[in-house]
Every structure is written in C-alpha cells, then in structure tokens.
Design brief:
Elements lengths: L1 E6 L2 H11 L6 E6 L2 H6 L1 E2 L7 H10 L4 E4 L2 H5 L2 H6 L4 E3 L7 H4 L1 H11 L6 E4 L2 H8 L6 E5 L8 E4 L2 H12 L9 E5 L4 E10 L3 E9 L2 E3 L3 E4 L4 E4 L6 H21 L5 E11 L2 E8 L6 H5 L7 H9 L14 E9 L11 E2 L10 E5 L2 E4 L2 E4 L3 E9 L2 H15 L4 E2 L6 H4 L1
Parallel strand pairs: 1-2, 1-4, 2-3, 4-5
Antiparallel strand pairs: 6-9, 7-8, 7-9, 10-11, 10-15, 11-14, 12-13, 14-17, 15-16, 17-22, 17-23, 18-21, 19-22, 20-21
Bound molecules: adenosine monophosphate and glycine.
The site of adenosine monophosphate has 11 residues, from strand 15 and strand 16.
Amino acid sequence: MKFGIIGSGGREHAICATLKKSANVKKIYCFPGNAGTAEIAENVQIEMEKFQDLKNFILEKKIDFVIVGPEIPLVDGIVDFLEKFDIKVFGPNKIASQLEGSKIFTKKLCQKYHIPTAKFGIFESTKEAEEYLKNCKFPVVIKADGLAAGKGVYICENETESLVAINEIFNGKFGETKNLLIEEFLKGEEMSFFIISDGKNYRKFGTAQDHKRVQEGDKGKNTGGMGAYSPSRLESEELNKKIINKIIKPTLKGLEELDTNFKGFLYAGLMIVNNEPFLIEYNVRMGDPECQTILPKLKSDFAKIIEASCNEKLEKIDIDWHEDKTLCIVLCSKGYPEDYKINVEIKLDTIQFKENEFLFHAGTKYDNKKIFSNGGRVLNFVIRSNNFKVARESAIKLINQINWENGFFRKDIGYKVID
Ligand code: AMP
Ligand code: GLY
C-alpha cells in the first residue's frame, strides 16, 4: 500500500512512523513533512492548501490512501475534493468538519440532541452580548465562532474583561465573524477522548491529557500543547460509557440526520465535572501532541486500520493496544508561543533510543544533511512505560542528551498523575 500524509507536525511524523512499522506499507509520501518524515518517507513540497496539485500528484503516483493531519484543509473541504477523483481519503468531509470549523454548529447540535455542554448564548452584536452579560455569573467564557488555531477563547472574570474580548472578536482578530458565543465556565478537569470512525462504525482510540499552557504549573500563555500523557487519569469504564452514550452517539446521529457521516479521527475535548462529561469542543483530527502520545501504544497494524476505515470495514478488524502508559514532552524554541528564532541547528546523532523510546519531529527541516529548527514546537520525546514517573524521567534524560541551547520544555508534564 502507498500512503500520502498531509501535514508537517509531530502528529504527522508519528503517523508516518506508525505506518512504517507495517509490512503492508510500500511507500509513504508526506506533504510537505519535516526532517523526521524525510528519514522514513518522501517529503513532497506541495503545500496543503494546493488541492489541485495534491490531487495531480496523488493520481500520478497511484497513492492508495491519503491521511489528512491538520484541521484547516479538512474544514476547507479537501476530502470532498479528493473523493471526486476516486481518491481514498481518511478524514471527515466538509460538513462533518464543521464540528471543529464552527463552534456554533456544534453548540446547535448539542442543543438539538441534548448533548451535555456548557450553557451558552449566541450573539450577533456587541449590544446584545453586553445585555446578556448583565445577568451573567462570572467567570464567563467568550469564544469566536470559527477556527482560531487554539486562540479565540477568553476566560473573563468580569464585565470589563468581557468587553475587551467581545470587541476583539467583532473587530476581526480571529477573522471576519458574524457571531460570538458566551458560555458558562465549567469547573472540572479536562480530558481528550478519541474515536476512529469509518462512517458507519467507530472504535474508541484512546484518551490523553494535554498540557496547553507554556509554563510549569499550567501558567502562562496557551500553546498548541507542551506535552501529554495517556491514558487520562480520569478514564474508567463507567465514564467511557457516559461519553459514548451522552456525547459520541448523539453527535454521530446528528450528522446522519444531516445526511452525512464522520470518517476519520474525532477528538472530543471534554470537561469532567463530578464524573460527568461535558463537551467543550470537537476537533475533527487527532490532537497534537496527543497523537504522538497515543500511537506508540498501538499494537495492531495501523495501515490495516486506515485501509479498513476508508473501506467501511472497521467492524471487521481488531485494534489492540499495549497495556503500558505513555508520556510525551515537547521541546520548544525559546520564546514560543511568542517570538522565537528558527534555523538553529540541532544535533541528534548522539542520542541512543531504546525500544520503548520515541522521537517525533515537529518544526524541523533538513539542510545540507544537517537538522535545523523550523517552528515553535520542535521535537516530541515519547516514552512507553508502566510508570508515568519513570517515563517522564527517561524523556528528560533524552532531552538533556541533546542539550539544545535554543530549546526549553516543561519538566512537570503529568504532574497530576506523578507529583
Ligand atoms: P477550546 O478552544 O474551546 O478548547 O477552549 C480552549 C480552552 O479554554 C479549553 O481547553 C478549556 O481549558 C477552556 N475552556 C473552554 N470552554 C470552557 C468552559 N465552558 N468552561 C471552562 N473552561 C473552558
Ligand atoms: N493538543 C490540542 C490540539 O491538538 O488541538
């Protein structure tokens, strides 16, 4: 089988590396990939918004299955586009991608199918929003409707902060918008819950806990994710059942009633309040760094799983997992998530990896056989172990071996399950 992977982050390198383990995989192309994918796949310099060019290349090379990593091409309809040319694509279509592309689409679905979520209001003008705030209990959460790369969410303690948020959103800070959302603040613990679906059947695909803030102790700015561990410490049979019955099943039914379905990875961002799940957001893809964290636990042939998902045959295969836990630490460029330097050389040849230790590249590139940084999140160190503390210590040891002067990382990933 030949695979094409769209994207260039740690998630995409982890997808390539996991496919590579399969004896059924002959060739992998990555659009455009990074220095890590270059070692195991062929990087092709076609940007992910160039749908025509991607389609031409995929047809020319007779690529059997395409996996779309990030949300932007999904929300822009890449799956619908490629499927018109009989290309098999693992990822949701444009309508289903609205689960991530429009928070208001998802909230309306929650309302119609009684999916537990924070109470909310949708507002078209500053005046309406201000009026609503008069009777609100603070804090409130104010959100822009569309994709905002993890930004566009404000937690406001009072009216003054709320007005700043409302003005910034309506003034187009996150792109042109007609609406915004004001939500009740839910106090609980977050959990990422994943399923894989072929459009007819679905399977659970692990849980994880991300660490979004840049500083230790969950302080500072929000980032794409500084590290994660899997499974979430909240996971239990009872909670899984509630999540499936109260959130996942009604969502899939809602899509069915819109005459569509969901194929791909669906990522439910949940807030667990007193062992009850509330949907905070959907993502229509694997998380990053959750993907890097979860895939090293997969025992089954990933290529077969993707093939089955693209052929509506997921019910026919088993998905087996290692019993062990995993923990991922992200090595970032100093200054991330604000200003940082790129093009700084990283020397990786001295590190020795054991069988349970994994390195996935994110913002890296090759130049003249040397590796250089090329983004804010640069490398992911993942350890599989029966003990989270041992996993974290091993990851830190690996990072210290490369001793990259331009880098920093959170040493407290997993503190809720370790310290
Ligand atoms: P989102 O982009 O919707 O995932 O929101 C970003 C982050 O804001 C989430 O990961 C939560 O930490 C927080 N958040 C969003 N909505 C709520 C809410 N209703 N209550 C509490 N925290 C929230
Ligand atoms: N780690 C958060 C995300 O992928 O959205």
